[in-house]
């Protein structure tokens, strides 16, 4: 069976054929570390994790690179407003990123590349582009990529330069802009006083790189000039990935990434979740509402990565209940591990081979749990096998046995709460605490755990 993935370059589902047999070079555009990520961002990384896990499941040797954008317009703004050094700010948020990654059970990339460690590589690519006539230096010392020199510009976002009105001498200094902005984009930004002490003295002059060149330098240095799969959210298609392709291919004369895969957005009331829209939740926000990060992961699987999904707390609370049921059902399968059921495994592969059809794969897990013709130890083996891809971390969960005495106290407390007898409810809570347990009231009911 062959894996088929939707390639944004062709706008078609294609059979995945790696450049080198058995090996996959995978690059994921990582976070810009100037504040906490929101769960829309995490959709992009959970999608990349599902893809990577599945490629590994299919026995590919995957080399996964993720960048950490630690110099960019928004970061510089934040550095100034918080009066911190670039390193102080970006290192703090990089650590926060790693903590949340682990809570979501996302496998670490093989290498996390910091943009500021690749300034030399960026300068070399920019110099090559100047030498080849694709880039030019402006009066202020910034370097721009001349999009009209690249005959293939627009091949990812599927628009033709010839259809657009040329904007004479238009130049785009910002990193983010709309598809109908046909300006040349900045490869190197000459220092301006607002940049403070964020600059590098290089052969190109005093300044800093543009955002797009960062990913070209980091991906090609670690995966080669041509590599297999590049991922990101759909908002990365233009301008970021379009520009990455342009500058990389014009510099090397070779194809850049063979497949581009993009996850669709997480929406709130039909609008993209974004910091700028103010409609976002961080992982911590949902944890505070009693939602396990893995429940968010499970919830995401209920729609394909390539479809837009509307986020509501209620639907994720539903996923939290489903996760609890899944964990209980898994624990009820006992300790013995039998053999993987080949019929179910074949179906699991069939679904995921179809552009990572996670809703079907997830439904199969429930179907398997209900199937009474398969022994519990074989079920356990099969579920553990599937979990290598799904990443719920079932191999790590253990039964937490809550003593009867504690359960009874919790029930009494619940009754007191129903009667709005808060004094009694607090008294019982203290009793529970004194016995080494705690009870938390969440939107999905109260939960008892060891202190
Ligand atoms: P950024 O830090 O803005 O570059 O975003 C990091 C990743 O999250 C990129 O791959 C974005 O495309 C992706 N992303 C941003 N917002 C959303 C969203 N609402 N839903 C899904 N992915 C998103
Ligand atoms: Zn990138």
Give a description of the structure.
With 451 residues, the chain is α/β, with parallel strands linked by helices. The protein has three domains: 20-263, HUPs (Rossmann fold, 3-Layer(aba) Sandwich), CATH 3.40.50; 267-396, Up-down Bundle (Four Helix Bundle (Hemerythrin (Met), subunit A)), CATH 1.20.120; 404-450. It is 42% helix and 18% strand. The chain has helices spanning 39-57, 73-82, 86-103, 119-131, 211-223, 237-252, 283-288, 293-301, 313-331, 342-353, 358-370, 376-390, 404-418, 422-434, and strands spanning 4-7, 12-15, 23-28, 61-68, 111-114, 135-137, 143-145, 171-172, 184-190, 200-202, 205-209, 227-233, 257-263, 266-268, 271-272, 309-310, 437-442, 445-450. Strands 6, 7, 8, 9, 10 and 11 form a six-stranded mixed sheet that branches. A five-stranded parallel sheet has the order 5-4-3-12-13. The chain has a three-stranded mixed sheet with strand order 15-14-16, covered by helices on one side. Strand 17 and strand 18 form a beta hairpin. The mean pLDDT is 93. The structure holds adenosine monophosphate (AMP) and zinc ion. Residues 29, 215, 240 line the site of zinc ion.
């Amino acid at each position: 069976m062959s894996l088929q993935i939707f390639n944004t370059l062709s706008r078609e589902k294609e059979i995945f054929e790696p450049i080198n047999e058995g090996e996959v070079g995978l690059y994921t555009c990582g976070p810009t570390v100037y504040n906490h990520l929101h769960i829309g961002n995490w959709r992009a990384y959970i999608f990349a994790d599902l893809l990577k896990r599945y490629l590994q499941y299919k026995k590919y040797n995957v080399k996964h690179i993720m960048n950490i954008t630690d110099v960019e317009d928004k970061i510089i703004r934040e550095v100034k407003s918080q009066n911190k050094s670039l390193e102080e700010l970006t290192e703090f948020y990089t650590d926060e990123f790693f903590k949340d990654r682990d809570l979501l059970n996302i496998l670490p990339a093989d290498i996390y590349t910091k943009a500021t460690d690749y300034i030399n590589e960026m300068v070399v690519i920019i110099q090559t582009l100047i030498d080849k006539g694709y880039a030019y230096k402006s009066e202020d010392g910034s370097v721009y990529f001349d999009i009209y020199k690249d005959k293939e510009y627009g091949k990812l976002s599927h628009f033709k330069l010839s259809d657009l009105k040329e904007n004479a001498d238009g130049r785009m200094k910002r990193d983010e802009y709309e598809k109908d902005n046909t300006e040349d984009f900045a490869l190197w930004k000459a220092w301006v006083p607002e940049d403070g002490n964020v600059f590098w003295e290089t052969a190109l002059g005093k300044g800093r790189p543009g955002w797009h060149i960062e990913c070209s330098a980091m991906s090609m240095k670690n995966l080669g000039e041509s590599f297999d799969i590049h991922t990101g959210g759909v908002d990365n298609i233009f301008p970021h990935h379009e520009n990455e392709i342009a500058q990389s291919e014009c510099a090397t004369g070779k194809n850049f990434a063979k497949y581009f895969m993009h996850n669709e957005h997480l929406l709130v009331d039909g609008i993209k979740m974004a910091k700028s829209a103010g409609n976002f939740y961080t992982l911590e926000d949902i944890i505070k509402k009693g939602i396990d990060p893995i429940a968010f992961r499970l919830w995401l699987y209920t729609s394909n990565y390539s479809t837009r999904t509307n986020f509501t707390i209620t639907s994720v609370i539903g996923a939290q209940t489903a996760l609890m049921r899944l964990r209980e059902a898994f624990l009820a399968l006992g300790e013995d591990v039998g053999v993987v059921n080949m019929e179910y495994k074949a179906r699991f592969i069939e679904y995921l081979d179809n552009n990572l059809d996670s809703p079907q794969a997830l439904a199969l897990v429930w179907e398997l749990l209900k199937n009474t013709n398969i022994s519990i130890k074989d079920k356990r083996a099969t579920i553990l096998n599937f979990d290598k891809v799904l990443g719920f971390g079932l191999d790590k969960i253990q039964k937490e046995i809550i003593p009867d005495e504690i359960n009874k106290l919790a029930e009494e407390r619940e009754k007191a709460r129903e009667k709005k007898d808060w004094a009694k409810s607090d008294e019982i809570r203290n009793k529970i605490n004194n016995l080494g347990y705690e009870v938390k009231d969440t939107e999905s009911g109260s939960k008892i755990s060891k202190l």
